[in-house]
Structure formats: structure tokens, C-alpha cells
Amino acid sequence: MAPLDPRLLATFVVLAEELHFGRAARRLFLAQPAVTQRLQRLERQLGVMLIVRTRHDVSLTPAGRAILPYARQAVSAADAVARAARESSSAGGATLRLGLSPGVHYLAERALAELSDVRVEALADNTGVISREVAAGRLDLGFGFATDAIPGMRREPLCDEPAIV
């Protein structure tokens, strides 16, 4: 037997709750024929009828009633897997809110090269703006050129850069 597609199970669960193809389709944001097709694919995969449909009634078969609790668990588990994947990809372990002043990207690359599993959200702006964003707590770290310290910000010199005019 092929692995069951969670979308087919989700369609069955919603249809079992609604006992109406039109309402199930609206809840699933699908066209009604798509709900029918998904149900038929699931029934073919399982080798049993799950839903009895007449002109005036939609009801679960004994097999449909038997698998409904397990289908709900499977849909819940699939949702949990998707949620965990989203959370881990968006968190990536940790998020570093970084400010970069023009011309300092090479310093940031060297300083951040040792970090792994860190997601970086970067803001590029002038050193004054970066400093204020760090001081306000909207950035965790900023790379810029020498500026006066402002309350809420600590300066750490990384290197001396010769400049020419």
C-alpha cells in the first residue's frame, strides 16, 4: 500500500465532520469535485468505502467510523510536523538582528563566520541609524564606523582602518 497523503485524510476528516460535500469544500478551500476526487483516491488506497452519498444524505460507513479517530490523529500529527518544520526553519536555532553600515560587510563576514545555525536578519543603513537601532533594542548587533557611544549601546573596536582622501 502506498503511503497515505495527509491531504486525503484531512479531506476525509472534514467531510466526516460536515457530512456535506459543499460545506467540506468551502472549509478546505477546494472545489466540490476536488473533495470527491480526494475521497475516491483515499477509498481506493484503503480498499474500502468510507462515505455513503445519496441525493439527500451523506453518512459514514462502518469503515469510515472505524478509521475516523485514527485519521484525526494522523492529520493532527501531520499538522504538528509542518508546524515544527516552519518554526525550526524560521528560528534556525537563533535569530541575530544585525545592522550593517556600508563598507563594513567584510568585517561582519569575518566575525560571523564561526556561527552556525543562526538566522541573520540584516538592516543596511548608516552608522548613526544602526547605533540608534542597537540602543533601542531593535538590533542585537551593529557593524559600523567610529561613532560616539550612546546610552544603551556598548562599543567594541574591531580594527583600525586607514582612510585616504
Q: Which structural class matches the secondary elements?
A: alpha/beta
Q: Rough shape?
A: rod-shaped
Query: What is the H/E order?
Result: HHHEEHEHEHE
Which regions have little confidence, pLDDT < 50, spanning 5+ residues? none
CA(first)-CA(last) distance: 74 Å
Strand order of the largest sheet: 4-3-5
Strand content: 5-15%
Question: How many strands in all?
Answer: 5
Helicity range: 40-55%
Main pleated-sheet profile = 3 strands, parallel
Supply the number of helical segments: 6
Summarize model confidence as the mean pLDDT: 83
Radius of gyration: 28 Å
Question: How would you describe the overall organization of this protein?
Answer:
The chain contains 6 helices and 5 strands, in the order αααββαβαβαβ. It has helices spanning 6-18, 21-28, 32-46, 62-91, 105-112, 127-135; strands at residues 51-53, 58-60, 94-100, 118-124, 141-143.
